[in-house]
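Allow me, if you will, to draw on your knowledge of protein folds for a short while. I have a record of one protein: its chain in single-letter code and its fold written as discrete structure tokens. I remain grateful for any guidance, and I place the record below:
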Amino acid sequence: MSEQNFDVVVIGAGPAGYVAAIRAAQLGLKTACVDMFAGKDGKAALGGTCLNVGCIPSKALLDSSRQFHNLTHSFGVHGISAKDAAIDVGTMVGRKDKIVKQFTGGIAALFKQNKVSAFFGKGRLLPNRQVEVSAADGSKQVLAASNVIIATGSVPIELPFAKFDGKHIIDNAGALDLAGVPKRLGVIGAGVIGLELGSVWKRLGSDVTIIEALPDFLSAADAEVAKIAAREFAKQGLKIELGAKLSKAEIKGNEVHLTYAAKDGDKQLVVDKLLVAVGRRAYTQGVLADGTGVNTDERGRIVVDEHCWTGAEGVWAVGDCVRGPMLAHKGSEEGVMVAELIAGKAGHINMDTIPWVIYTEPEIAWVGKTEAQCKADNIPYKTGSFPFAAIGRAVAMNEPAGFVKMIAHAETDRILGVHLVGANVSELVAECVVAMEFKGSSEDLARIVHAHPTLSEAVHEAALSVDKRAIHKGN
């Protein structure tokens, strides 16, 4: 085996890994990045799950399906008619593939520009900060480093009684590559992946049923936001069964026969495709050789401290393979933090101001604490909210559903959390993150001038509403 030496070797080229590699290289460190992902063409593709079969391709399909749904269901109010509208799924998926190729190629170009050495194969941490790279052809080489950053990401959780076959029972990657619109689509899990991909195929004409084991819808979100979102999804015809636990999935011919326990007894459901989206688990299997000094917890996640250090000299871990939310932007910022710490600079990430977004219609976003969390932590708080139905821009866009809700400390007025559901709230939440990061109060946002007419006025009015002085609604 040949051996090469680097200042930093990153295992994994997803949003956490490739960002860590680029930042390390920017700081003058000789950097390598090891990745094993192959694209649809069988060639090495940087970007991990996010760029290849996650964030980016799903948003491409969400946008395509939204355009088609608006054409067939929403444009009439604008006086626009389209006769015999049709969707070519092959063209839609092809567009998605081109976007993926554009961005994975973009990372390769950034690696070249920043002099990051890319190695394609499975990376395995050996003792003394050595990384074994096993290529697809069976060849192996060893990279030695002063620092190793593990960023191996996560993989879908597979149910033992509903194993992926890639044809009838599929994961998120399979749901992005369907050859046509399934007449009946079953989805197990009403989380981000299930709701987003379920929405895609529902808009294109599929009869979608989502089965969720938890009794409450979107329990991680604010209860009022979850209630409004559930109402809007029901209007769209998205069927969501809560408190329902799948017990059997049998493939019979070209159908999947499901048996699940619901609140009112056992039920049967027959679908053409079944998307299993019950969550993801850290991908650490085979990543750590004996004697590395790196530990994993009961869920297979690499144990790290607040600076993403594993406790082993020069070994760090970031992204989905460690504690915290499995979000691309969280992993990226951890990657930047670790690269800067390695370079002797101050690295930082505030886990309390990480925004969450679900890209459905309407979109759902939040940052900070919910009311339930404030109550559980005995934090005195006050709230204000404002509906998009009273925002001129939202009504003009024919997207009046949803609202903005702000939670502030009852004594200091510091913003504790902001929860949004409605059009483009994935962008509106950024203002709230900035305000919270700078220790802002609801009064601060209330006194900032917001352009009119814009959707951001809902944030302004929600801030005003915290102290019962909203202008465009009753207090």
